[in-house]
Amino acid sequence: MAASPKCRPFIRVTVEPLDLGRVVTLYTTETCRYNNGMKTPDDGRETSLPQTIESTAEEIARDCVAVRLRLLNRVITNVYDDALRPLGLKVSQMNILVVAARLGVAEPSQVCRILQIDLSTLSRNLERLRARGWIESVPDRDARVHPFRVTGQGRELLEQAYPLWEKAQRKAKEMLGEEGVSLLARVTRRLTAGCVEG
Fold it and tell me: 0.70 exceeded by the pTM?
């Protein structure tokens, strides 16, 4: 009588789902070099790895949105700062005074949220405004809040600054053009929709 064959133990095999992203990453790392084109699984578009740090720097300098916004900010800010210089005022400081005047009694956290600036930047500007007599501290039961308001001298300053601001506003609009101003307003409203005053 023939011996019964031994039964092999049952082995459960678990097959993990294929991670296409990992496959493409490994493939890119192992086989793609520099400008050898490859297609991504997302959209089938061909892409390539930068050949040198020079080409990387060139691409960033050419296409970076942040760089363009910073350049635009400096150019337009200079227009307003030049106009307000006779009063010893910068447009960034004027914006703080405007927000504080609208709020009546302003808390630093409110101003930071409305103007989208950090507390250290606001604190430096408040020191300068306070030294010029344009704002004053308001006593509060919570010493950590540090509320402030625009003084009478500060309100007079805003009245003097208005015609200079108007002149700068006209120049800035001429530089940006009607389409640029409209686009800037739409983008600003969309990106700052969550910044509610109060």
Answer: no
